[in-house]
Every structure is written in structure tokens, then in C-alpha cells.
């Protein structure tokens, strides 16, 4: 997926919010924004991928401010509040009569979890609204390949599950549990270093994912989405050997659509901005479960 014109404004807006979180030093804030604008002046072109620019933005901010995890406090809050909602979501999943129904309900909860994102212009979430969205998740599903994904997963042996945001990862445990109940080996991957509010190994441990998945690894990088040239050897070996990849969030959707995929990839996300919604031909603020290629 390539950038649209409005992506520049979003990158700057999110950058300004992140800089404010990263430092209270006015000089560092100014320098961070100057270097962010300089990076965009060189990198913002029709062939650019939004997630790649997001990675470069975050690296600029972390380098200039010296703050490696600007959203650390916010991520912790998201994890804590999501854990409070987990029993409610788990009950919704367990109300399914069949294995396939429970799997779909878990996927819907995971997609609702993807609303937990900061500083996207025009998008906001509240924990009260999150509970309401969990109940009505099926109504917001506009691309529904869940049945196809279920059939492929059912006939697989090993699955790689790529997580997205902190807080959201709590609801990913529901999908991992359902996959485990299907007799599958599930390897979960989080980011190797902080980037935006994406989940890291610290988040996976805090919310209990390390006790649910067969194994939790990192991508080995702080890149938004999938940057195959940057990932660790361990991650690449697992990515290439698993039968199907589950990928959460817009960052993975933006980058995986740039690859020639050699195996099934299941994308689960909330279309939180117009460029992503336009690319997948869906309304904004709707849920997508898309099987690729």
C-alpha cells in the first residue's frame, strides 16, 4: 500500500503528539520536529509506504529526544484496562456453540482491540466505548474471510501470530486460545523494540501471553509492520516455516500488501484512516478480516 497525500499530515500530527510525550524540553521538541520535517522532505513520495515512514518518524524522535519508549505509560494503562475487560470478552467468545463460532467471536474481539491506537487524526477510543464495540463487533465486519481463514488454520500445524498494539494484545489471547484448542502450535511475535504503542515482550509478559502461546518471540526490530530486511534470523526462519500467518493491525496490512506472499496471511484490523479504508475499499472505522494472497 502506498501513501496518499493526507498521509503526510497524519505523520506530522502523530509525530507532534509523540514528541510531546517523549520530552518536556522545548529545544528538543523543536529540533525533533525540524528533523521529522527534513526526513519527510526526502522520503515522502508516491512510492513510499505509510508504515515505513512511520518507522522513520519514530526513529527520528527517539534519537533526538533520547526517549526510547514515549508511550510506555500509556501502553501500561491500556494493558491494565484491557485486562479488566477480558472476562467480558471471554464470555462473549464462550457463548459460541461450535468451535468455528467461538473462533470467529475471538477474531471479532481481536479486531475491536485494534481500535486501541493513539493520535490518528479523526480516530479516538475510550474503554467504555470498547466494551460496547465488543458486543457489536459483528455489525462492523465489512470484509469477512473468517470462515476461509478458519478452514486453512484447521488444516495447519503451526501458526505465526503477529501482534500490534499494547492493550490490544490482551484480546489477541482469545484467538491464540482458540487456535490452541484446535490443536495448533501458535508462535506469537511482538516488536523487538518500542515503536509507537506496539506491544513488546514486556507487554506480552505483563498480560500473560507468554503463558498462553507455545512461544513468544520478537521481530528483532522496531519497524512498523513487516520489514523483512530488518527482522532477526530467528523471526525469519519461523516466518518462512509456519503454515499461515495471522497479522494484526494497519501497519502489517500496509506492508504485507507490498510483498509477494508465498503462504496464506490473515489480516485482522480496524480501518482507522481514510487511506487504508480506500485501499481496501471499505468504510472508515469498520473491521476487516481479509485472507491474502
Structure description:
- With 293 residues, the chain is of the alpha/beta class.
- It has 2 domains: 7-65, Helicase, Ruva Protein, domain 3, CATH 1.10.8; 72-292, Rossmann fold (3-Layer(aba) Sandwich), CATH 3.40.50.10880.
- Helix content is 52%, strand content 12%.
- It contains 13 helices and 7 strands.
- The chain has helices at 7-22, 26-43, 50-65, 72-94, 99-113, 127-135, 146-154, 168-181, 201-207, 209-212, 233-241, 250-256, 274-279; strands spanning 141-144, 158-162, 185-190, 215-218, 244-248, 265-270, 287-292.
- A 7-stranded mixed sheet has the order 1-7-6-5-2-3-4, sandwiched between helices.
- Helix 1 (7-22) runs parallel beside helix 3 (50-65), helix 2 runs antiparallel to helix 3 (50-65) and helix 4 (72-94) packs parallel to helix 6 (127-135).
Output the CATH topology of the largest domain.
Rossmann fold
Radius of gyration: 18 Å
Domain count, please report it. Answer: 2
Order of helices and strands: HHHHHHEHEHEHHEHEHEHE
Largest sheet: 7 strands, mixed
The CATH homologous superfamily of the largest domain is termed Uncharacterised protein PF01937, DUF89, domain 3
Q: Name the beta content range.
A: 5-15%
Report the principal-axis shape.
globular
Task: Report mean pLDDT, rounded to a whole number.
Answer: 96
CATH class of the largest domain: Alpha Beta
Describe how the helices and strands are arranged.
Blueprint: H1 7-22, H2 26-43, H3 50-65, H4 72-94, H5 99-113, H6 127-135, E1 141-144, H7 146-154, E2 158-162, H8 168-181, E3 185-190, H9 201-207, H10 209-212, E4 215-218, H11 233-241, E5 244-248, H12 250-256, E6 265-270, H13 274-279, E7 287-292
Parallel strand pairs: 1-7, 2-3, 2-5, 3-4, 5-6
Antiparallel strand pairs: 6-7
Helix pairs in contact: 1-2, 1-3, 2-3, 4-5, 4-6, 4-8, 5-8
